Amino acid sequence: MAQLEHVFVEGVRFDTEVQYVARHADRVRHVKLPMRQSTSPRANALTCLLQCLVILGQLPLKRAAQRFRRTMPLAGTAVDEDGMLAGIRAFDDTIAAKPVPSTDAQEIGDTALRALRTGGVCIVQFESRDHRRWATVIGVELDRTTGLARTLLLLDAEESEPWACAHNVRIELQSVAGSAVHAGAGLTLNCRHLMGRASTVRLHRLIVLKDGTSAPS
Question: What's the pTM?
């Protein structure tokens, strides 16, 4: 029997809404993580970028959002890997951002797990039957028996905001998609949504972000 453990992004809590640690001049406190629901792939990409940047830098949201609006270069460009990396560099060129050159689900999951355990944050791009989109990897479900990542726990700005839960989407890395979900060509991973909807997806890429003092693993 699998022994499961959930490993979450460092500093995140979710007793009610999802919150992260922000360092102000006179104090350190938890504040609400930005979450703006939208069906726009570009808006969702920007939301998950901002989420990862404020978590990584423990930045007060108002100041970070102002800087984000000034520096973000994604307007008029494709929301692809190059655009995401350009956005990270424009916001803070000391952040080490490393794309994972693999579409293998298990490799992506294990890489995300290592990153979360060493203070990093991750952005993943996945494809459903309708479109591709980016989401924040807020946690990873670990099978302690095998030591392997079992499920990606995502905070997806296209979905409803979670309450007393860090994630609103689960992508299972090891199970084969069943007939009860809407399968499509090449979409082999089960994706389960917090509100009960299920679909099939495939993973396209992962970007690992860490502070500039250490390279992503």
Answer: 0.91
Give me the domain span that covers residue 175: 4-210
pLDDT of amino acid 164? 96
> Which residues, 6+ apart, have CB-to-CB distance to 147 below 8 Å?
none
Cα-Cα-Cα-Cα torsion 169, 98, 115, 100, nearest 10 degrees, comes to: 60
Q: Is residue 216 part of a domain?
A: no
Give CA–CA dist 54/31, Å, rounded.
10
pLDDT at position 39 = 83
Label each residue of 3-31 as H, E or C: CEEEEECCCCECCCCCEEEEECCCCEEEE
Number of domains observed in the structure of the chain: 1
Cα separation of 152 and 199, whole Å? 15
CATH number for 68: 3.90.70
In a domain, 129, yes or no: yes
pLDDT score of 217 more than 60: no
| 217: in domain | no
